[in-house]
Amino acid sequence: MDDIINQLIKDNINIYEFLQVDPSSITNDIKKSYYKLSLKYHPDKKTGSIEQFNLLRTSYEILSNEEYKRKYDDLIKIKLQNQTNFNNLSETTRKFQTDILNQNKKKRSSPQNLELLREDGLNKRRKLEKSKNEKQTLSIYDLSVDFIIFFENKKQYLVKLKVKIKPKVEIDHIIITEIMSIFGEIKQVRFDSKDDDDRYEYFIIEFKNKSSMDSALNYDYSSGKKWDGTNVRKLASLLRRCNIVSSSTSYTNNSFVNSVLENYVKSVSDKISTK
Question: Where does the J domain start and stop, copy by copy (predicted)?
């Protein structure tokens, strides 16, 4: 959840404005606004949007949780403070540049200073040409193994959960998180588009590790005994099956950069294996 909060701050998304509530709003007001906007953004509605609906769910989850809400508020304060510091720095820099320009104008009126500037320019040019002549071209394969950077893969453990739709029973990502956390720690849950069968809905679940994902995949969902004694026992009986989506690897959040790095790492690995 910390990663999601940081991303919201980075993208300048104000979840208070999106949820149409004030920072001082109580939990009931936040919940009312959430359900009202759910009717607007639900993917099954004409005005619906899967992106907006997922953002709405995430915003509600943050503001309805005291710990998440505190972290979000703290990050907003830090960002505002950083922006203020940046503006002050920009103003100080502008004044400094103005002072330097004024001093240079005065110096330009002196023939002696002009001669010194020419001499200084020639010296810098000689040093630059000398450094270019001395520069040697090295490839990655000329470096020792100690200097080769190996990237740590970020694995995603994703499953798709099938859930029976029951009239007057609303299942959202918060409830699914509570139910499926019995298998292990979850990074995030998002609603997936429905198939042709209107009897079921689907959720994409990202677990933090492979063992948790395997536990969820190997469980027989015809039995809800695993949730006996919990407050989600009845809701867990609506689960039908869990299938793997992917167990992918990535280096960054940019697919183009990932492809470049993938080719680079492969070429380095092939080169090392042939030595």
Answer: 14-76
pTM above 0.85, yes or no: no
C-alpha angle with apex 25: 22 to 26, nearest 5 degrees? 165
Domain that holds residue 208: 154-250
Distance CA 116, CA 96 (A): 23
In a domain? residue 87:
yes
Residue 104 near residue 38, CB atoms below 8 Å: no
> What is the three-class DSSP state of 84?
helix
pLDDT mean by block of 10 residues, the chain; 275 residues: 66 85 86 88 83 87 87 83 70 68 59 67 77 55 44 73 90 92 93 75 92 94 92 93 72 60 60 54
We report the CATH number of the domain holding residue 69 as 1.10.287.110
Number of domains, the chain = 2
